[in-house]
Amino acid sequence: MPQFFIKADSILSKLYGNDWEKKLQAKELQANFVHMTFLCRHFKRAYQDFFLSGNDLQDKSLSAVANGGGPVSTYLRFGWMLFLALRIHVFSRFKDMVTCTNGLVSILAILILHVPIRYRRFSLDDSTRFVRKCDKGVDLISSLSNIFHASEVDLLETSKVANNLIVEILNKTPRPASECQAEELKDIDTDAFSYFEGLMEESSLVSSIQILEKDYEDAIYDRGELDERMFVNEEDSLFGSGSNSGGSVTVSGVKRKFDSISSPTKTITSTPSPRGSPVASPVKESSATASIKMPPPTPVSTAMTTAKWLRTVIAPLPPKPSTELGHFLSSCDRDITADVSHRARIILEAIFPSSSPGERCVAGSLQSASLMDSIWAEQRRMEALKLYYRVLAAMCRAESNRLRSRNLTSLLTNERFHRCMLACSAELVLATHKTVTMMFPAVLERSGITAFDLSKVIESFVRHEETLPRELKRHLNNLEERILESMAWEKGSSMYNSLIVAKSSLSAEINRLRLLADPLPSLDAIAMQYGAPTAIPQRTEASSDPNVDTPSSPQRLATTVVSNETTGVTGEHNSFVSPVKERSSAFSAFPGKSRQPPLQSAFASPTRPNPYGGGETCADTTIYVFCQKVLKLAAIRIKCLSDRLQQPNLAMEQVYRLLNLVLREQTGIFFNRHIDQVILCSFYGIAKIQLLNLTFREIINNYRKQPQCKPQVFRNVFVESRRYGRSGHETVDIIAFYNRVFIPAVKPLLVKFAPSESSVEQSHGSEDTEKSDGPSPGSPGSSPFQRLPDMSPKKVSATHNVYVSPLRSAKMENLNSHNSKSYYACVGESTHAYQSPSKDLTAINNRLNSRRVSSRLNFDDPGLVSDSVVAGSLYPSQSSLHLTSDSVLSQSQSQSQSQSVLLASSASPIKHK
Q1: Distance between CA 703 and CA 865 in Å, rounded?
Q2: Are 686 and 692 in contact (CB under 8 A)?
Q3: How many CB atoms lie within 10 A of CB 247?
Q4: Tens digits of per-residue pLDDT, 703-749?
Q5: Cα–Cα distance between 369 and 356 in angstroms, integer?
Q6: What's the CA gap between 764 and 564, in Å, rounded?
Q7: Of the candidates 674, 619, 631, which has an alpha carbon nearest to the alpha carbon of residue 507?
């Protein structure tokens, strides 16, 4: 699907304009397709665990043959069609994965009550699966909620709604299940259920499916939506090969990583990983005490477990500031409790709008939202509000301890800070439920902030919410990467409002490209646009306070210091402690340990002086920290791509240092672009200047294998153009950008990396000197890659699937313990004094490869592995060691490179596959 959107971009742009993705909801359609694939697989697994599948049915009249696949149970098809009726008539606006899973589980309960007993694969006597309620029998709702990590209240509500659909669409008459004597209801607590006699009779089941399909066709006829009936018929091979429980899966022929939606099996501070599917069937187990299998987590089970954290940890909290938070709000220069509550109500109402007659749905449908949607929106607002108050209280506690003062006026009266906190809380709630119709960055638009604003609170949010599940931590990490790589560099980012102050030499280019962000919209404007309540508290907007980050014109930002930003506040000097000392520029390379700046300085006006900052402004501190994060992200990606390209460490370090110089001295290269575009060009530039055997095609082909790769990164690069005397912009491929923009701007920096005669002589020196030890020419300093997190497992062979991972800390402690440390050798521990691990492995491999080992081993031979063989492999002769040809630079290499040598050849353009 992504490839289709790329190929159809030119056609769809002519038909619907440049914003066709937003008009046609392309991203929502793609996400909906993936979610439905997961939901259908989850439903099939659950059904096959409880009932006989189509392959097991001897009565062929109760199974239908799928298109190109095997038989599908008619009961399974009926359940799926009833679920689609729920999606169309009930979940009309917010079709999130958690709500849909609750719908599938409630339908599974209906099937358990109505499918004949002879098709059951389970036993109600299984105590590991079913919960009994005294003498009334099995509590079915409680049992299913435990198995699928669902909410009992939601399951009961959804079951009642599904029963109403059966009445309205199929014209069936319900009866209280407690009054019925059906065999299927035996040994089940039926107080909360309704029963439909004859619902699953063979004579009426097929006609009921036809009625549900006709109702579904009529509902989606004018909507142009995806026909979701196909999911129950198609085989898994059409949607993905292998298991979707982790790692990667192929969806529509596209390899997708699911690291962001599947958590590891173990975590310490996070919620435990879920069970992937119901436990093993008692029919398959011969013993009642058989061990319970724990399948790996799936995207659906992971979402349900994360929702359980929200339901059990956040939902029970009060929907108002806690006593501790109330003390902080009232301890400001004035009591701002009413302002905080008023702002939260408006912003969250804009993100989760209440349904009203005639309101336009988020998905673009003009159909009014149902009552279920109103309840859903109210629940999500409450969850986001409680999470916001909880984390805000933790942040205030930490800031108060750091400043030794309870007066946090400069932070708590900052409008932008509160909106970022509300947006982050709402985004976590949306990510928990995996909502299709409200995907990031929708929360930014409705909060009136930019992506750069949100990045300022992500790290603090994670640090101050210790119970946050690992799934949500990964989601925030992915958001921060998206912001650093491209969103912060887009037009309208508030990053430029700080950059124009921190580096005034860029003001002309920033103003010429009109990159500055618009002023922060007022709460009244947001309330009017999204229909939020506009009731004004006793004291209105916090903008009346002299310390609030009031919306101001970006044109005045670089030249004028607003008078109210320089006014003194009680405890203000303690509120600004600069983490930056003894540096000459905000664009300096990141140090060994980065430090998050205080929240007050991060959200203060860019032009405001930063006390204890050596004459710096708050913009200097903000941009410095931002550049730290950008360089660290770039270093990680440079290292990964360099490993794929099998390039020497010296070239990898030079690519990083070139990118660092470009960020400091040619910052305009990043404007309106993706940092990966600069990384790709830096790789090729270093390859040309160092005469490495590396082409742009190889770089791009290996970049395609990176998990963050998007084809538009190297196919659509922003460049300025001038036609008919008028300036404009266009998009070109990465090679055209390299030749037209990158080389003319970066050539003075690139020639610094030309190999000198001394560096060539040093490369012929002692073989004990590592290639990565020496700094690149003209750029002294320690390697930044030593401080990067280990990206394991790492592929170490270009021709073989050999991967290396570091030894786990727990095993390392056991090996290094007093009782065992003398008996083991660890990977990475040198076998020769002053020798590197890489040479150890090379020597061992050379020794083993040079000997021909028989395919049949005689284990009775005592001399099979002797001490002399081991000693010979660990201490090879010096003649067996040699330098590879690509590690020695040719002495005849030219010291200066011409413009034609640096340019990329246009004879091999990028192929659009």
Answers
A1: 44
A2: yes
A3: 12
A4: 999 989 988 899 889 998 877 667 778 889 999 999 999 999 999 99
A5: 7
A6: 64
A7: 619
